[in-house]
């Protein structure tokens, strides 16, 4: 299962928008998906991501699905946000492919 | 942008100055989001590097949305935020302000031992804590601090009678006078 985050917008910055995105994902994209299935989160086309939005979406997905892969994380705000989540949210103890290797 | 924008922001929510039709006033989060989108176009037109433009927008997004998140149902003054951006003496400047509860009042609910505005700002920028506990939150201002430092930006953040000045270092001190809610001034000289 691949989720293209740009389909939720290219500027992803608030918690309410993140919550809405996660609910839509849960209803339309992730419904019935096994927790062991590979989930690919594709950041291609995302211009701005902030930790508030990401914490409502990425952390929740990472807590539920065990096999996570992040694609196209080169955008500066995406990298910075992933770094913050790894440091300050429940995202930090999770193992996933595409970890924030290039982050400062 | 007028060089007195900080003064304008500081005084915007005073009853005698408040202008609900101001181009800088974002009554709701939706209006703020739309103006944030527009700011990115402006930053790129001004030849700011894409990576800086996107980080700067994420920082402004975090600070502006914090105002809405933490004051929903508890605004002290008018609902909403003041949001302006532009160049002041060739320095890119973004100003955000609200007439909310301020950091001290917000955090004291979850950390009662806080004694004053200085301690509240120190906590807000350094500890994983949120006034909206038990929700698991509290990473936004840490993101702001880290990226202001990494990108060579500057932030003056006022709340109550304290100011946090962030760039390559962090200085939190008492200031003369006080600001009811939160006032943030982000600047970048690279433009």
Key attributes of the depicted protein:
heterodimer; A: 104 residues; alpha/beta; 3 helices; 5 strands; 40% helix; 16% strand; globular; B: 191 residues; alpha+beta; Heat Shock Protein 90; 5-stranded antiparallel β-sheet; 39% helix
The structure class of chain B reads alpha+beta
Helical percent range of chain A? 40-55%
SS-based class of chain A: alpha/beta
What's the SSE pattern of chain B?
HEHHEEHHHEE
The CATH topology annotation of chain B reads as: Heat Shock Protein 90
Description:
- The complex is a heterodimer of chains A (104) and B (191).
- In chain A, the strands form 2 sheets. A 3-stranded parallel β-sheet of chain A has the order 1-3-5, with no helix packed on it. Chain A has a two-stranded parallel sheet with strand order 2-4.
- Chain A is globular, with a radius of gyration of 12 Å.
- The N and C termini of chain A lie far apart (29 Å).
- With 104 residues, chain A is of the alpha/beta class.
- Chain A has one domain.
- Chain A contains 3 helices and 5 strands, in the order ββαββαβα.
- By secondary structure, chain B is α+β, with helices and mostly antiparallel strands.
- Chain B has a single domain, classed as Heat Shock Protein 90 (2-Layer Sandwich), CATH 3.30.565.
- Chain B has a 5-stranded antiparallel β-sheet with strand order 1-2-3-5-4, with helices on both faces.
- The longest helix of chain B has 22 residues.
- Chain B is globular.
- The model of chain B has no long low-confidence stretch (mean pLDDT 92).
- Classes of the chains: A alpha/beta (104), B alpha+beta (191).
- At the A-B interface, helix 1, strand 4, helix 2 and helix 3 of A face helix 2, helix 3 and helix 6 of B.
């Amino acid at each position: 299962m691949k989720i293209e985050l740009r389909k939720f917008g290219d500027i992803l910055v608030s918690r309410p928008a993140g919550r809405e995105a996660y609910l839509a994902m849960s209803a339309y994209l992730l419904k019935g998906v096994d927790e062991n299935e590979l989930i690919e989160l594709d950041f291609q086309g995302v211009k701005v991501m902030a930790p508030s939005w990401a914490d409502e979406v990425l952390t929740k997905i990472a807590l539920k699905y065990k096999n996570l892969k992040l694609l196209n994380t080169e955008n500066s705000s995406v990298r910075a946000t992933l770094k913050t989540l790894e440091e300050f949210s429940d995202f930090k103890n999770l193992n996933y492919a595409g970890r924030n290797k290039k982050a400062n | 942008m007028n060089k007195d924008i900080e003064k304008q922001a500081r005084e915007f929510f005073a009853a005698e100055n408040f202008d609900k039709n101001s181009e800088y006033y974002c009554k709701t989060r939706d209006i703020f989001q739309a103006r944030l989108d527009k700011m990115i176009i402006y930053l790129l037109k001004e030849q700011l590097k894409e990576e800086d433009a996107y980080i700067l927008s994420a920082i402004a997004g975090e600070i502006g949305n914090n105002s809405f998140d933490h004051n929903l149902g508890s605004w002290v003054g008018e609902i909403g935020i003041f949001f302006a951006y532009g160049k002041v003496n060739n320095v890119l400047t973004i100003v955000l302000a609200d007439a909310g509860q301020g950091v001290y009042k917000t955090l004291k609910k979850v950390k009662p031992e806080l004694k004053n505005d200085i301690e509240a700002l120190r906590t807000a920028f350094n500890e994983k804590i949120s006034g909206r506990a038990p929700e698991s939150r509290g990473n936004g201002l840490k993101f702001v601090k880290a990226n202001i430092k990494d990108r060579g930006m500057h932030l003056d953040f006022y709340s109550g009678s304290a100011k946090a000045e962030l760039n390559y270092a962090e200085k939190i001190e008492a200031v003369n006078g006080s600001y009811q809610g939160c006032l943030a001034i982000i600047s970048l000289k690279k433009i």
